[in-house]
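User: Can you help me understand a structure? I only have the sequence.
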Amino acid sequence: MNAVTLSDLTILNVEGLGKRFGGVTALEKIDFAVLRGKIVSIIGPNGAGKTTLFNCITGLYAPDEGSIYFDEQILLNRLYPFTITAKGVARTFQTIRLFKHMTALENVIVGAHVRTNLSLLDTLIPSRRFLVTEKKIRAHALRLLSFFGLAAKADELARNLSYGYQRRLEMARALASDPKLLLLDEPAAGMNPREKDELLETIRAIRANGVTVILIEHDMKVVMPVSDKVIVLDYGKKIAEGTPREIQSNSRVIEAYLGRGGHS
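Assistant: Let's start by predicting it. Here is the structure, written out as tokens:
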């Protein structure tokens, strides 16, 4: 039997990543690895480069330097976002981006279509394969709505849902593509304490279902209890990486981030 190597356990490997916007360096020589089945948080002050990093991983930005390898050395650099999603990477956004005039169920169904192999002809003249596929997608979407406590909201328009429910719906839509890696960009933003507690349980449940999670979050009450590892960015550079306990006691982190009101 072959021995398991670190590369076998690694789902994402970022090497020397750099991104510039004109004369502004948003990311500089970022290196880190994410192991399968872990929850990793990325923290740092506003403008530290956290969302830029997510945008590079998911294809919205092309890195200027470095490499991003996913799942058995798939190079993500310069792939289109929809291709990266099909490879197994899904995300949510800092600002909710739902289809507001579609129902909750329809939003999740849209997220699942990346996994279909239907042809244009199948869609224009509904074939048996089309009908079977659509039935499976609908059942999958309903299971996800139930998982997120949204089963009773399936037929409600997304715009009519409360803020907390919209956040859940966006996660459900992301998971509809059956990702191996889920990126959550400030999912606790705007949530009340009860909703944040529920979010923690949801993130743990997502991981328990075999999905690796990378989390951008400002609220340390969310980050510290749920994370296996925390990565800290400041001015586009990685200044620390370690367990939550190590990060909490890191003097450089306290000065650069936690000391600037990072506990709020």
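Now, to help you interpret it: The chain has a mean pLDDT of 89. The longest helix spans residues 128-147. Let me know which part you'd like to focus on.
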